[in-house]
Protein 1
Amino acid sequence: MPLLPEAVRRLAAWCAVVLLVSGVGYVGIRLCAELRTAVVPVLLALLGSALLRPFHRRMVKARVNRSVAAAVTCVAVVAVVGGAVYIVVAALIDSGDEIVASLKEAARGLTRHFGAAGTSLDDVASNARELLRKFGGTAASGVISGVSVVGESIAMAVLALLLVFFFLRDSDRAVDGLRAVAPRGTADTVEAMARRAFRAVEGFMRGTTFIAFIDAVCITVGLLVLRVPGAAGLGALVFVGAYIPYLGAFLSGGVAVLVALADRGFVIALWALGVVLAVQVLEGHVLQPMIQSRTVQMHPAVVMLTITAGASVAGILGMLLAVPLTAAAFGVIHELRERYTAPPEPGAPGTAPAGGS
């Protein structure tokens, strides 16, 4: 006679499974954090390959050599990304002083209307030099560490670009290599899981890029109508930020509102805010359900929790990688469910007999 009821034993078994999976996941995350200079370029290259594979495939179908097609694709990526970064940085540099001046003016307005609360904000702005002198040593060490971070980021970006080239060029050999390293008897399952995961990532990247393009165009047009300076750069910033679902577009739209406030005043800033909110409503209620439902089906709550977890693990980079990795995990789970959840037998209890009414 068992000492514990069946329900308690099942609960204990599930708890053991959860603890085991959590432990393995934690160890995996720690290893990825320690080896981030090698892991991050691989993940970025996989995302880039998923996004650029259709373009590369079209060139190969046009009888362009695979290496040449991969090289042309990488050069195009460098040109587009470099141009977007230049436009964004130039626009923010041109408007940076105006943004700071507008924030100071807002602090003075709070001082006039709300007394102590505004005074505290104004004091923070006026005493920035004293705070900087007080924490000068910390700031200097931060600059040094910042330089090393920039160098590491450039190295990882170059490595990711090279990996994109090799992933695109040798994508036809990937399946054979994967089947060769799969354990005996599992090659078909491993291949199916990999294909489903890559299709999920590819669908996410394709759908997100389309949504980001529409967001950027709508906000750029709105800013041009409002005659906000740097509208093209702000639109490019919105395009890049849209790869972090929900939060990225909100933050980049906030920058656009600040620029409008700095150059065109409070009323135009309100109109810019209205444009950003209208685009957010269009994205959340029309574009996301219509486009992403055909590629990756994840509830918005799952997306937000995933972004939060990614930010806590790896900051902005974690926010960028969290959703596509979760999409790949969902794809693998769906594939395993389809393979190992067999339909009930025709004569099993609870099923209607064949030909029955």
Protein 2
Amino acid sequence: MLDPRWNTFLVLCETMNYTRAAERLCLTQPAVTHHIHYLEDHYGCRLFSYEGKVLRLTEAGVKLREYTRSLAYNSRKVEESMMAPKPLSLRIGASKTIGEFVVAPKVERFLRDYPEASFSLIVDNTQVLLRMLEAGKLDFVLVEGFFDGSRYETTLYRKEEFFGICPPGHRFAGRAISLTELESERILIREPGSGTRAIFEEALRRENRTLKSYPNVATISDFSTIKSLVADGLGVSFLYAPAVSGELERGELVRFDLAGLPMSGAFSFVCLKDNLFAADWIAWMR
């Protein structure tokens, strides 16, 4: 069972406000302060500091937050497993490409193998899912794009091609085009925080460009809408292969590439560090 003082520390990390932390924990504010002072005395370092009136985590506080999140998660899962038998519970998150086009067979197999299980799948962009993982709301996530892997336990799930799409008959169809040629097109791109957008932006950075280099960019979070608009000739986009495999086979969309700029991305299994159950989940995902 997790020491209540560590739980107080985690809640204060979330709220970054002693009053709100006390309200959430149903404690007095002096009690919250006492818990934090105990931990600071125990570890011999400051965990929080004020910049003006804004509460900030110190470097030591950031380190303790990462360790304590894992401890809190493992403590809760161990308690669940040691209590009276109950249905298996699994909460996973998947970024949109993975959630909509990749993970369905795994979910189907899990539900067939564990018909009594409590199961949830959250599909959202990479950054949202990582925040939910850190908050203990998910057991693990499958995400695409770039993130700070040093903060988590990560395993490569699979790699996928990433390329441009346009309608049949478009002047880009089947070609490798330059970034300069792309300037004349409307680019349909996912929202900030999505792995799909991050892969494209990283490719631009390698050529000392950003999305601001392009005069006509539209942000759309929905894959179906993006593909429909591209098919209707209202722009071009860049997506992972699984997201457009059906449209490519039916000839509704056509692939193009960026000359001298190959793109691919990793789909990663991610959980909190030192997760006691990670090996079992990785085996299941295989």
Protein 3
Amino acid sequence: MARESEFLALGDDALRAVIGPNSRHIALIEDRFKVLVETPGGGVSINGSARDRAQAKRVIETLADRAETGAEITEADVRTALGAAVAQPRAGQGSVAPDAVALPVGRRGAIAPKTAAQARYLELLSRCELTFGVGPAGTGKTFLAAAYGASLLRRGQVDRLVITRPAVEAGEKLGFLPGDLNEKVDPYLAPIWEALNDILGPDDVRRRRDKGEIEAAPIAFMRGRTLAHAFIIVDEAQNLTKLQMKMVLTRLGEGARMVVTGDPSQIDLLNARDSGLSHALRILDGVQGSGVLKFEAQDVVRHAMVERIVRAYDADAARQKPGPDPEDRA
């Protein structure tokens, strides 16, 4: 097959993002598609077969589009774009529209979905009163939930952002931990605080917490409450029991929305069959106002090694998969 060159003009910011630190991003593109990518100035020159050039061009255009929105381009972004170009080879299908849902600009640039699954997840968050985001670590399900909740709070579409999760490691006996309620709960919510600090900035997060616009509480403190005009994030939901899941789902009040995130493969309960996440997914399937996005190993954007780890564990779980829970059949 004939190898030819094609030049793609890029702005300075996009060109730096495509090149990457020590030309690492270009090296990944060249290795995946067996092309030669050079930077003669003002853009990139792609040399290779027509098919390889087309795939490499889609990756470069995806990275350039994200860079021009102000987003920081990492190696994880490059690997995600590479996978999308291979999975969706026809022109126009390899990129994700960053403007599908308006998200805030974080400290590292504009926040936008990096994969097609993330784009569908954000679409569900905007459309459904109750959204489930389930799948392996590193797929962005918690970060995007926090980003979407922060965007609603900033635009005044909700009055509060309420964050809750089970404190399984401490048996929900938070009184044995030092400090006030926030100091007791915060260690369990570190991933969400990191996300919100990145999105809103630590000072804004602190101010909103002081005003009660952002609230964190363990699942045990949700009982008996009605959460109106709030965006509720229920994190690590695989560690909720069936009764806890029912209790927290029924906290929804007027004008409220909820997202439930979790990884069914990482249940920390003494009896994994007590987990309410898979049970809720089954019985709420098709219920009006609810939506489910199931992330897969190929949606991992954290690190290439994380995807390989997830695939290895998934393969092992498939070999040892137990039979269905008799109670769930009832």
Protein 4
Amino acid sequence: MKKLYFLLPLILLGCKSNTSSVNDIDYKVSQTEVSDFLKYLSSDELEGRETGTKGIEKAAVFLEDFFKKNKIKPYFASYRDTLTNFKSPAYNIVGVLEGTDLVLKKEFVVLSAHYDHIGLENKQQPDVINNGANDDASGVTAVAQMAKYFAKTKSNKRSILFVFFAGEEKGLLGSKSLVEKLKKRNFNLYTQLNIEMIGVPMKRDYLAYVTGFDKSNMAQKINEYTGKNTIGFLPKEAEYKLFYRSDNYSFFEAFGKPCQSISTFDFENFEFYHHVSDEFKVMDISHMTLFIQEFLPAVTKIASTPTEEITMNL
């Protein structure tokens, strides 16, 4: 998540059923694959994945290889979308799965997360690598597993753009750069789900929250689609205006459509925000696997409903 300077002191100290439920998804997310993916993306080898460094280049290659392995095509000439607003070469990694419906495939759902982090500490200390396991290798892992699911099941009637952003920690640069290009292509956006910091669970009666809860009916529709109390309202999110702090905001600003981030970081369950201890070993892999599994019916419905059911609130 884009650095929240004013938050550091704080950080350091049932729905109605629907015909689509979790049990309707005949697909099991592999906990081993979730673990292996996250472990590499947050490993010391990648040196904190700061935009423009050798570490994030290794991450880019890893993500490109993942798309190739799962037969997800590049949206542009290659998977690499060069940032137009960063001094040295930097890339979003962008893949696409065309929708299966002749009409609905003209509409796009964007599933995204940022794969950059804040790199190395300048001061001398035993550990200098900000591995960024929760922020946001966890979100990238979730989006990757959703991409694998759709590539295998072909259950998306709408087209899906899978985006791993660079430059988020530099000021949402990757998403700002990409939306300019998409607007020029008359990109037909339905909605965006951006996944941010889902590596540890909350002690609440819902699984996750969306930023900008009242801006659209996304929370209500996700709960309807999962048949569970999947999304709840987090007052701290509204207080600190997290809607404006991640890559969903660039898309909302450009397209005026429901574009929101989904997270399980609630200011109480994780004390290592932008800290060298944000490492793989403190991630809850079972929770992450459950999170991805529970969202599959929701993203499937979002990608397949005959009409655009997720709408902005007036």
